[in-house]
Amino acid sequence: MRLILLGPPGAGKGTQAQHLVAKYGIIQLSTGDMLRAAVKAGTPVGRQAADIMARGALVPDEVVVEIVGQRIEQPDARKGFILDGFPRTVPQAQALDRILAERGLALDAVVELKVDEDALVRRIESRVAAMKARGEPMRDDDSSEVLHRRLAAYREQTAPLIAYYRRHGTLRTVDGMAPIKEVAAAIEKVVAGERKASAAPRSRVVAPKSKRTASKPSEKSKIAAKTGRKARTGAARRVGAARKSARAARKSAARGTAARNRRR
Ligand code: AMP
Fold this sequence. Notes:
264 residues, alpha/beta, 11 helices, binds adenosine monophosphate
């Protein structure tokens, strides 16, 4: 199962991803977490990303695409993954399509957590104020000003992905303002639906009514229905015909032998 959780900062993608990790045993790939780890470790990527992240802007596409491409290669990603915070731009989504196609993989669904931005801002600001009051450690980008910049980046650069994935037919939207448990249940329903769809055998795909032709039963299948014997497919008919001519050849050979014996 390969999923993308799409939504603005604070929509609950991380919380829902953790729930899916526990439920399905697949890994969560959060580019935000990976970049924060790189910043903490002081790697070249981390040094490049630190200021950008603190400003609430987006790290260059090629940097995150490289990180995600390498991470997807790891053995623990084989069973599936939930992308949280990636892709965030259309070029990132196109790069992801290429990365997956090269590995013969595809996305199962893109789940959009639809939220009301004003309510979201109030929710995050009150959460940040409560954390401050408790003296809890804060993220560098946990200020109201940076939050507004991150939301602007979402609107301008990430929201176009909704139309992108809608066109691809993979977009599923759930109400991200509902209580956490209800959001989780809605996502599970989406996942269950996708699993069912991908498990369905091809032969059960039914053509739309307009395309179905009411073909008349053939004489052979009418006889088969009467006698209870199965009407045979083309391949079965060809096998049957070959057996019949082999039997006929054996019979005529036997007749020839008998005639020769009589003459002797
Ligand atoms: P997040 O924890 O997902 O909110 O990400 C925190 C910050 O990391 C973002 O504000 C960006 O600066 C950076 N970041 C995370 N993911 C991406 C991405 N896919 N593309 C560009 N920048 C990203």
